[in-house]
Write a structure and sequence with these properties.
The structure holds 2 protein chains of 2 kinds. By secondary structure, chain A is α+β, with helices and mostly antiparallel strands. Helices cover 43% and strands 15% of the residues of chain A. Chain A has helices spanning 8-18, 69-81, 115-120, 128-143, 149-155, 162-177, 182-193, 235-242, 261-271, 278-304, 311-330, and strands at 23-30, 37-46, 49-58, 89-93, 103-107, 202-204, 213-215, 220-223, 230-232. In chain A, the strands form 3 sheets. Chain A has a 5-stranded antiparallel β-sheet. A two-stranded antiparallel ribbon of chain A has the order 6-9. In chain A, strands 7-8 form a two-stranded antiparallel ribbon. In chain A, strand 1 (23-30) and strand 2 form a beta hairpin. Chain A is globular. The N and C termini of chain A lie far apart (51 Å). Chain B is mainly α. Chain B is 70% helix and 0% strand. Chain B has helices at residues 4-19, 25-46, 48-56, 62-66, 74-91, 98-104. The chains are: A alpha+beta, B mainly alpha.
Chain lengths: 338, 110
Amino acid sequence: MTSLTQNVRLDAWLAERLGAGAARVEAASQFWGGAIQENWGLDVVADGTRHSLVLRRDAPATIPASRSRAEEHAILEGASQAGVRVPRPVGFCADTSVIGVPFAVVERVGGVGYGPKIVRDDRLGGDRASLGRDLGRQLAMIHAIMPEPALAAILGARPSDPVGAAIGTLRRWLDGMGLERPGLEWALRWAERNAPGPDEVTLTHQDFRTGNLMIDENGLTAILDWEFAALSDPMADLGWFCAECWRFSRPDLEGGGLCRREDFYAGYSERSARTIDPARVYWWEVMAHVRWAVIALQQGRRHDSGAERSLFLALTGRVADPVELIALRMTAPGTLAA
Amino acid sequence: MTKALELLSEARRVLQTGLAPSLSGEARLTARLAANAVATAEREIALAGRLAVAEAALPHAVDGIRAGRHDGDEDLYRRLFALAVLRAHIADPSAPTAEERRLWIGERAP
């Protein structure tokens, strides 16, 4: 891998983006985790001013739904311009001569991103009811973004049936891995039989959950990881955030293990006139578990295939099993989405 | 000669209580991941027989499920659930509820 320090091309690019005469990366350290993308903390001095930045680039093997770094950065810029709380974008570099691959740079934000720690540490997040409402408001703001033409081109055509598309995508991903997972198939068939009808389509984050939220002692500092953002049913994001699999040690706090569902919904309704349909959200929570289980299996396959040998990826593949169990609990015979 | 499960158990113990506490940062996390992997392998070996029976009870069910031939099939659901509880327990013993463990794994699950 091309070094991020003593790299004159990277220093020159950073200087230009920061509006400085000269810049130098004094230190670079990789953040642990981030199986799909690599995140590197950069300590940069530009014209005597210190900057704490994050450089983001692809890991050796990625998964099908992950957008390119260029697209993700454009979406992040759109969210930033709309006032959503995200790391300030610094720039995107498509020139592979700089570090060997395209990359994006944003300002580093304070706080903790590690989900299990945020959930169990009451010193983080401030008042959790307030945090819940703030998260709800931020999600409503994301759903209210009206993409300008360049961003709209990246997001593509508005899907006519996000619900059907979600089921189809997960079936294709399972088939693509050549895996037989009858438990997940059961949940997908339940989803097909209980599919809600067509409704609104908005920009959605598609990975809005504890673990992608930077939280400090006062509350939310930034929403991260926009690589899956897409046009879809906004209730998909509510279902993903409230899904049991993302509550870690606080399964009782249905708002991502951080807050009560009611507080999260209240915040959302402060910024959006959209009705939150509990049945629709339940449906998307079922799909959240199937989706996470399939993604976990994909990450396990990255190790198995030799594309990226990693104990972390191999163990992530096993996460599919407890998540499948939750999906089956939610789809017992006779269970309706209502 | 030390049996496979005993070897794994000792390796896990060494990683968890011997190596991980003496490390810091990423090395410590890696040691804990390795201990987790060994523990998972222990449970899978210990439950291999039960797992094979549960898997055999679901021969090529995917096509039928997807085609809707098993809609509302409570017998199939029970078999799916039994396998899911076993696998979930192997991956994370805290994942099944106490009742699920009692019903589908037994009191002395590894």
